[in-house]
Design a protein that fits this description.
By secondary structure, the protein is of the alpha+beta class. Helices cover 36% and strands 14% of the residues. Strands 1, 2, 3, 4, 5, 6, 7, 8, 9 and 10 form a ten-stranded mixed beta sheet that branches.
């Protein structure tokens, strides 16, 4: 037993807990700028009111006026003594003279090879000329930066266009993967989630730091959306602290279905309350890395959890520490402002499947009809954008919630979209809102 205490102390020192209220302050990445900027334009905000998602130019250098140097006094002349006459060199023989001449030529040849070309002295510029030269160099640098960013943006939009074709070819699979689920936990009256937002929205947008540094994933044909949203919530909280982890959706789906862990079952879908609860009650990290417990996109109707899981699925790396059930829209905004990602469930409308980065209530039936058997789907909310006055007048609410999906980069704008407040109020699923507050890694 002597070895047990040092081992426990070592484990405690190595583990680290990440909280939502002490995340790093960081600007949007280039990818985040492109996503938010594209959605911003699709919302209808005028260009002159843009939050300037492009890279900021370097500041103009300040003109520094140097003081006129004070001339130094002329020193008194130093009288040097007469040089001592050098002795007359001895007269060399012809052979000795020939050797000396040859050595002299070799020295000159070597000096010519190694000597650097003399620099032409630069013309000394005036203060104004130097300032104009600096401005010209700065302008060229800014143009190069903006040109590189524009090129990257164009390439990203082209990539999304290509992925959109792949998404449309898989759309029927995604529709079949939705399900009618009821979230576990304390019931919440529908009136609370249907109440309009009261919190004043001052900033034009807010995004959890690091939320766009995580790649968009694809759940394939399986009804595992809640597992993907839950895993992304943990990854987002860690990313906000500059810690990148690729975690296992395969494990979280298995953890959410206790009735399907020892024997195969056909019950479709899940919610995050059970795996979050199980993880928080563990005495050790239980959620493994993706490479240790890889996900399979192929559905097994009679074996939803794909048991038996591999041994790598027991190699836990991260643990959920604290989470909170959300009951109102104001709590959603408060959680996002506190950099807490929110897992959310909705009944999907036709315009959710095909959108340009904006899902509104007024266009809910665009592209088809919705009935009471509409499928349920879980996504992750990572921020919000204030709606322009035109959309507010149309009754869409004060803001739209930035959502990260698990249908690949062909959905919305690179896998992201913004859901208006009214759409969220109308199509939310009861109890299906959970904010992640803290997580722990080894």
């Amino acid at each position: 037993m002597k070895w047990l205490l040092p081992l426990l102390l070592c484990s405690a020192l190595q583990a680290r807990t990440f909280y939502s209220d002490d995340v790093r302050v960081a600007p949007l990445s280039d990818h985040g700028n492109i996503v938010v900027g594209s959605i911003w334009q699709n919302l209808g905000w005028p260009a002159k009111m843009s939050p300037k998602f492009e890279p900021k130019p370097a500041p103009t250098p300040k003109v520094v006026v140097k003081p006129t140097p004070i001339p130094k006094p002329t020193p008194a002349p130093v009288i040097k003594p007469d040089p001592t006459p050098k002795p007359t060199p001895k007269k060399l023989s012809k052979g000795q003279q020939a050797i000396q001449d040859m050595l002299k030529k070799n020295r000159e040849r070597l000096k010519h090879k190694t000597q650097k070309p003399s620099r032409v002295p630069e013309k000394k510029l005036s203060l104004k000329e130097q300032h104009l030269k600096n401005l010209d160099a700065l302008k060229r640098k800014n143009q190069s930066t903006l040109s590189d960013w524009q090129s990257k943006r164009d390439q990203t939009l082209k990539h999304w266009k290509k992925k959109q074709k792949e998404f449309l070819s898989q759309l029927n699979d995604f529709k079949k993967a939705t399900f009618n689920f009821e979230s576990a936990g304390v019931p919440v009256g529908p009136s609370k989630l249907k109440k309009p937002l009261v919190t004043p929205i001052k900033s034009k947008f807010h995004v959890i730091p690091g939320a766009f540094d995580i790649s968009i994933k694809n759940q394939g044909k399986r009804p595992t959306c809640a597992a993907f949203a839950g895993v992304r919530a943990v990854e987002t909280l860690l990313s906000a602290h500059g810690n990148q982890k690729d975690l296992s959706e395969q494990y979280l789906y298995w953890s959410a279905k206790p009735d399907c862990q020892t024997s195969p079952c056909s019950n479709r879908g899940s919610w995050v309350s059970k795996p979050f609860k199980n993880s928080s009650r563990n005495t050790y990290p239980d959620i493994p890395l993706e490479k240790a417990c890889p996900y399979s996109k192929f559905d097994r109707p009679s074996n939803q959890t794909h048991i038996p899981l591999g041994m790598g699925c027991r190699q836990g790396s991260v643990q959920v520490k604290d989470y909170q059930r959300i009951e109102t829209l104001d709590e959603i905004v408060g959680s996002l402002k506190s950099n807490q990602p929110v897992v959310a469930g909705f009944k999907l409308t036709p315009n959710f499947y095909k959108n340009n980065g904006l899902v509104t209530y007024l266009n809910s039936k665009s592209g088809g009809l919705m009935n009471e058997h509409a499928g349920g789907h879980a996504i992750l909310l990572i921020g919000y954008i204030k709606l322009p006055s035109e959309l507010q007048k149309r009754g869409e609410g004060k803001l739209c919630f930035l959502a990260a999906n698990s249908w690949g980069e062909g959905w919305g704008q690179g896998g992201y979209s913004c859901l208006t407040e009214r759409w969220v109020r109308q199509h939310r699923i009861k109890n299906a809102f959970m904010a992640l507050k803290s997580a722990k890694i080894k």
